[in-house]
Design brief:
Length: about 160
């Protein structure tokens, strides 16, 4: 028999992973409403201590409106994107959860002719997604993605 605390932690871990999955699935579908639902809202999301996002190669974005606008731009300018998450880890501390993962991304490159899907290109990003527990469930507070610029294995670094 597991201790009640372990059951609650397992439920929290499952809920955080579901929220993390919802982020990537909403991007794959280009679903602005679902993406908006993933992020922290209300007074907790305002500029001062609110949501933060760093897309690979972008400056830091603060505030819910700026962060959501950035995702809308990405979705509007991406014909196809799919995320294969690996190395997913969850750390829970009270009402905060950190999910780290590798985003293995497959997306369409620039098409030769308008109206056609461009060639598929791959990329890899290391991401940290910080969630906060709210009355409405776990919501994304901060996303930071850093591109992986090397293709070598960890063993090669020794």
């Amino acid at each position: 028999m597991t201790a009640p605390g372990r059951d609650a932690e397992a439920a929290d871990r499952e809920a955080v992973l579901a929220a993390n999955t919802a982020l990537y699935e909403s991007l794959e579908r280009g679903d602005a409403d679902a993406l908006t639902e993933v992020w922290l809202s209300g007074a907790d999301a305002d500029d001062a201590g609110g949501v933060v996002c760093v897309h690979p190669g972008w400056p830091m974005l603060r505030g819910r409106a700026r962060v959501l606008r950035s995702y809308m731009l990405i979705m509007a300018n991406t014909e196809y994107i799919q995320f294969f998450l690996t190395d997913v880890e969850v750390e829970l501390v009270g009402d905060v959860a950190l999910v780290t993962c590798t985003e293995n991304i497959l997306s369409s490159g620039e098409a030769e002719q308008e109206g056609e899907l461009g060639p598929l290109v791959g990329g890899k990003v290391i991401a940290s997604n910080l969630f906060r527990r709210t009355a409405d469930g776990w919501r994304l507070w901060s996303h930071h993605g850093s591109p992986v610029l090397t293709s070598g294995d960890e063993e090669d670094e020794d």
